[in-house]
Protein: Transcriptional regulator
Organism: Enterococcus saigonensis
Amino acid sequence: MFGLLQPNKEKVGRRLKLIKDEMNISFTEFGSRLGLKKPTISSYVQGYNLAPLDVIEKVAKISGRSVGWFYFGETEEYIADYLTLTGQGELVKEYPDIVKQIKEEFFTGDFKNPGWENEVGYPMEEFIDDCFSDFSPSILDRYIGKIVTQQIDESEKLKNLSDKEKGEAVAFVYQEVMDYVEMSGEVKYGEEEKVIRLVEDSISNLAKRGKIEFSEEYLVGRLVNILDDDAETARIISTLSLNLTGKAFSPLFGGKELIEIFQAMRPALMKLYAEKSRDELYDWFEK
C-alpha cells in the first residue's frame, strides 16, 4: 500500500490521540466506537503498533480528517518527508518553497490526473520525483552560482582581476561548471566540497590561459568574445550594415559611439550565457 515512505507509527499514534482528546472520550469509549478492545486501540494510540487502514478509515469518517493525514500529516509534511528520505533534506530546509510548489502542482496543475494520487489521496512518489526534477534545477543553479562568486572573490589566482574581469570570470566559470553538472548529473544540492573542487579546477584552467574566452559553439558566446574587442565589434557592425543597407561601416572617421552601444550589450549577453544551458541554446540555434 505504501511506497518508499512508510508511516511513522508513533506519529500516527499522536494523531489518533489528538482526535481522541478532541472527542474528550476514554480509550475504552474510543475503542468501542471503532469496534476495538481497549488494549488494541491503546497500542495504536501509544504508537506500539501501526493502525491498519480499516481502523484509520473509521477514525477519518468520525473526525472528518483524511486517511492521508493520519498516516503522513499535512500534504506538505508528507512531501517534505519523502524528499528528505530521498536525500534532499538540506535543499528542503533551505528552500521550503519547493514543497509548496509541488503541492500546488498536485492540486492545481494544468494536467491534473487522478492517477497521480496514491491510496490515501496524497501525491504518488513518482509525481513528487517528476515535479522535483522540474523545479530543483533553478535552485541548484543559484546554489552553484553563489559558490562560484564566492570562490572567485577569494581566489588568490584571480586577485589581480578588475571588477569587470571578475564579473566575466564568474560567468565563464559558472557556465563551465554547469556544463559539467548537466552532462554528468553527479552534483546534488548541498555537495559544497564537490562544487568547490569543480570551481577550483575551472579557475586554475582560466589562470593558465590568462584570457577569458567564452565557448563559441553558439552565437551568444561568439558575440561576447567579439564585443570585447573594438576592431571585432566594428567588423561585425560593418557586416551587418552591408547586409541591411549595402554600405560598409568604418571607425576611421568616427562612429565610436555606435561601437560603444553595441558593446553595451556584452554584460547582458554574458548573463544570458551563464543562465542558459547547452540544451536551451541547442533549441534556439539547431533544433
